[in-house]
Amino acid sequence: MFLLNGKPLALDVPFETPNGTQYPANWLRLASPEDRKDIGITEVPDPPSPWYDQRFYWGPGLPKDHDQLVTQWVDQTRYTANTLLIPTDWMITRLVDNGKLVDPDVKTWREDIRDSSRLKISTIKTTKTTEELATFITSPEYHTWPVLGENPGPTEPLSTGTKSAGIDTIAFNSGTTSAGIG
């Protein structure tokens, strides 16, 4: 930031010195540090801007509407839960279609995802202020979801075409697929 007699000068705006000399808008950009110093202009660091989380505030100390944020974060939480469940939806469809069993760990994990989602949504809905909501949403508690290994579902390839315990598998190895879906 440039100062002349303690007052800030904006870039690309013409200005006048106390002795009445006028300078064009581009002068500050084109002038050397020595030229600026010669007429009494000093350069100081810009004051730091106060930080605020734009997801929850319009500006420092200006919270967004709490009710709208609750609706937004409930929707986001449901979306996240559904996104986590999608990779194993085919197993449930297969169970309904032809009775093929679903790995019990997958079923437990899916229920854990739904339970976690319900708990997060309940907590979101019980917040009373934007600050309270922001504190919960930015906490590890909100961002932690149940995990089922690296790949949901069975992962052993069925190169021989065999099945175990009536559970079909799909394994993804180096971009190729080995499937044993019946």
What is this structure, in a nutshell?
With 182 residues, the chain is of the alpha+beta class.
Structural summary, described in words:
By secondary structure, this protein is α+β, with helices and mostly antiparallel strands. It has helices at residues 27-30, 33-38, 66-98, 104-126, 130-137, 140-143; strands at 2-4, 7-9, 15-16, 22-23, 41-43, 57-59, 62-63, 170-173, 176-179. The strands form four sheets. Strands 2-1-5 form a three-stranded antiparallel sheet. The protein contains six helices and nine strands; from the N terminus they run ββββααβββααααββ. The chain folds into two domains: 2-43, no CATH class; 57-153, no CATH class. Mean pLDDT is 85; it is low at 150-182. It is elongated.
Number of helices: 6
Strand line-up across the major sheet: 2-1-5
Measured by DSSP, the beta-strand proportion falls in 5-15%
Distance between the termini: 71 Å
Decide which structural class fits the backbone.
alpha+beta
**Cα Rg:** 30 Å
Helix share bin = 40-55%
Number of domains: 2
Instruction: Provide the succession of SSEs.
Output: EEEEHHEEEHHHHEE
Q: Characterize the main sheet.
A: 3 strands, antiparallel
The counted number of beta strands is: 9
How does the overall form come out from the CA principal axes? elongated
**Average pLDDT score:** 85
Low-confidence stretches: 150-182
